[in-house]
């Protein structure tokens, strides 16, 4: 037997059988007639034949062969079918565009249809119209997506948050295993929760920003008139997603910290509706997604010492903006049709990521941020430098980072969502290391922390975090040649803060949030 690339997917493996066994022997022949494989057909998922042969279990790409024998699956069985369900942040615009792009990349046409509340995308061969795949898409909420996953109504859940512990427990009870495992999720893009006002608001100048405390006061009804914060005498009208949209479980709830919206709050179906309503209401203020900003104006968050945090593509990728929304796909079954696997792989391609950027999301493509672009942070670092050794430490940092660029991958210890984002960043760096992307260069793992226990304790914590990232990269990049790239661990403690912990309390982030934002491991390339 002669093996041709792309035909044989794997050999001599213990392959799980996801469907009832198919009785009978078949012969698979490559389309050029050069390879012939015979054996007992164990399973067919619409894209992959699994055979028991004299060479052991084999998996063969259906696109590369023709099947002969009475046990060969019929045309209907050769259609790959899978279903997605979940957040409209992905399901409304982005996912249909991604399905269209995937079909075009594989030379297939797309036919749209509907089945009740589900959209159907039928992918066909353009030459003879043969149906190759049928993808079902249901939009509701992240919670509904996970519910559909548990009941078998979906194979993939679209989520705008990390899976909750109770959802993980329900998944185990349903026989789906550990849905929180890293191999069961795919991070495909990022978004952010941002406060917004109208282009001509009664609050005055939006550029001066709002403290988190003030923003919560406006949304919960504690502050009922714009004059309370220096604006015109006019009542405040809060705009938020409606309760039916699952506000208590959405990323917006992180900003409200469990506080209920004020009685005057107007509630809307989704983020886009919030943006539209706020844009048309000079007395309005609301929370929306950056991807759905529309005609509303983003208001910066005051971070102390005169600094402001504004959601931008790079700020979202680095996590330097505090309310990042990860967009995940969670896989209900460890084994999906091969075409579904190809679709998931497509989502990581530049073409798919560019489509996500065009849809308003922050893509996952790596970006480089020069040291010269760190002006605001350096100014804050100088202002916050500790007496005595502060200037010497700044000089040491500049000496280490001179000539290097910061990569957008940033690792932050923290709650589950941050851990999921950080793990995805480590996995992306590990793949780049294995591909030789950084060969001949130095990756500087720069730790920062401002725990408040003094410079020595801050540097010790920062070094511990940076060493943990180094160890995680080495463990994940098993195929990398570390003789061709250097990993350098450095610790700068409280230098280069993103949020100021000094200044007036009414002009800064809550202390715990500022510490969480400032504690990070940045990746620099030299």
UniProtKB/TrEMBL annotation:
PBP domain residues: 135-349
Matches recorded under Gene3D superfamilies: OmpA-like domain, Periplasmic binding protein-like II
Q: Does the keyword Ribosomal protein apply?
A: no
Q: Which domain of life is it from?
A: Bacteria
Signal peptide range equals: 1-23
Q: Which InterPro entries did the record assign?
A: OmpA-like_sf (IPR036737), PBP_domain (IPR024370), Phosphate_ABC_transporter (IPR050811)
Entry keyword set: Signal
Question: Is Signal there in the keyword field?
Answer: yes
Q: What is this protein called?
A: Phosphate ABC transporter substrate-binding protein (PhoT family)
Q: What is the lineage of its organism?
A: Bacteria, Pseudomonadati, Pseudomonadota, Alphaproteobacteria, Rhodobacterales
